Amino acid sequence: MNVVALLPNVDENQKLLMAARGTHALCGINPLEVMGYTAIPAATQDNYLTPTELGHQVGLSGRRVNQILCEEAHLQVHTPGSSSGSGWSMTEKGLAFGKMFDSTRKGGKGSQQQLKWKPSAIEFLRPFANPPA
Q1: Which domain of life is it from (predicted)?
Q2: Fewest Cβ atoms closer than 10 Å to its Cβ: which of 9, 30, 69, 70?
Q3: Which residue has the higher pLDDT, 8 or 31?
Q4: Are strands 111-117 and 98-104 parallel, antiparallel or unpaired?
Q5: Are 90 and 115 a contacting pair, CB within 8 Å?
Q6: Would you call 43 helix, strand, or coil by DSSP?
Q7: 114 and 127 Cβ atoms separated by less than 8 Å
Q8: Exposed, middle or buried by CB within 10 Å (0-12, 13-18, 19+), for 76?
């Protein structure tokens, strides 16, 4: 797996996932799962949130959050059938608020990406918030 370390234009998270996939293919064991990793932390220490986690703070479903971030805030676009595993991609405007996270697919085969948002993205949701019951 030393060849993975030499790949150009591949970030450290991708290198780690490639090595884990290679190990799984050769040995049938995903070392990341063995060590208890279901996701790899981003290089920054910002606490990024899923749409469901953001929505919980303002009484909205994750689906509604995705709709607002797409249609109202223009932070993301829907990309159905994406090979990345995420059905969403950030727009140019969204790059300031979101980040794609790499995670291992269940069962250890392959990786997928998940779009998460900085807590500051909640400001785009407040006008649509549901009052607490």
Answers
A1: Bacteria
A2: 9
A3: 31
A4: antiparallel
A5: yes
A6: coil
A7: no
A8: buried
Name the amino acid, one letter, at 120.
S
Give me the residue label for tokens 């986690």. Answer: 53
CA 44 to chain centre: 14
Q: Kind of pairing, strands 88-90 and 98-104?
A: unpaired
Q: Residue 53 and residue 124: Cα distance in Å, rounded? A: 14
Q: Please tell me the predicted confidence (pLDDT) of residue 53.
A: 95
% of the chain at pLDDT higher than 70: 80
Give the β-pairing of 88-90 and 76-78: antiparallel
From start to end of the chain, where are the E strands? Answer: 76-78, 88-90, 98-104, 111-117
What does the pLDDT look like over 105-125, one tens digit per residue?
667 677 778 899 999 999 999
C-beta atoms surrounding 90 within 10 Å: 19
The model's pLDDT over 50-87, given as tens digits with 9 standing for 90+, comes to 999 999 999 999 999 999 999 999 999 998 876 666 78
- Angle CA 120–94–49, to nearest 5: 45
CB of 58 closer than 8 Å to CB of 39: no
